[in-house]
Amino acid sequence: MPDDLDLLTAAAHEAGKIALEFWRREPQIWEKDAGAGPVTEADLAVNDYLAHTLLGARQDYGWLSEESTDDPARLDAARCFIIDPIDGTRAFIDGQEGFSHSLAVAQGERITAAVVYLPAMGLTYTARSGQPALLNGKEIRVRDASLDDADILASKAVMDPANWRDGQVPGFRRSFRPSLAWRLCLVAEGRFDATLSPRSTWEWDIAAGSLIAECAGATVTDMHGGPMRFNSARALVDGMVIAAPPLHATIQQRLALQPRI
């Protein structure tokens, strides 16, 4: 029987094949309720495949996915899959390459195995708890920088002065990528210095990437500097700060005491 990471990796690669069958081919699109964004027939096809494959292999695991109705039984499971079938759906719809499949296993509140796969770019990020993070089989590491010189992946919300002490936004450069999971991985491989979110983030967006970043040497916390906890009843984390330890410490010092969540 494959271990959890091998299982996730094989499933992610098959999911990529499914997604690419719809990519740039005008898939059907629906808008979710309450302004939750678009979903395509590709998201649903990938989700169905992953649920069938992963739960078929691990019938005692819980299941948390952006595209599945939440089953509270997952809270009682010792281990739980946390899945975003397609992270960056808007990029997928637009025909951009920067969408990913984000697959993770939580044991209790902690992520123990993780894969983020970008099929259009041929990028496979993987991590096992306590081992180095890998990109296409090669070890990756975070890089450090001063805050004012840092290149940080974040949405426009991070530039709100209310998120920073004394309303002073540091002089870092803000960059953006459509897949939140990929942002964490780009920090893990040292292509960017940090990623931030002052707003609550869904677990399925960051579960896999959080372990990959951690195994690459990043400090990974919520916006208050606390540990991320997964498979929670709300399925939300109170924002995130992910960076090499010295830069992470500086960011936490400069953030407002009560950041806007």
UniProtKB/TrEMBL annotation:
Q: Which cofactor does it need?
A: Mg(2+)
The domain of life is Bacteria
Q: Which UniProt keywords apply?
A: Magnesium, Metal-binding
Keyword Cell membrane attached: no
Which GO biological process categories is it annotated with? inositol metabolic process; phosphatidylinositol phosphate biosynthetic process; signal transduction
Short name of one Pfam family: Inositol_P
| A GO molecular-function annotation | metal ion binding
Show the InterPro entries listed in the entry.
Inositol_monophosphatase-like, Inositol_monophosphatase_CS
Q: Which residues bind Mg(2+)?
A: 66, 84, 86-87, 205
CDD domains listed in its UniProt record: CysQ
The record's family statement is: Belongs to the inositol monophosphatase superfamily.
Which protein, by its recorded name, is this?
A: 3'(2'),5'-bisphosphate nucleotidase CysQ
- What is the organism field in this record? Paracoccus aurantiacus
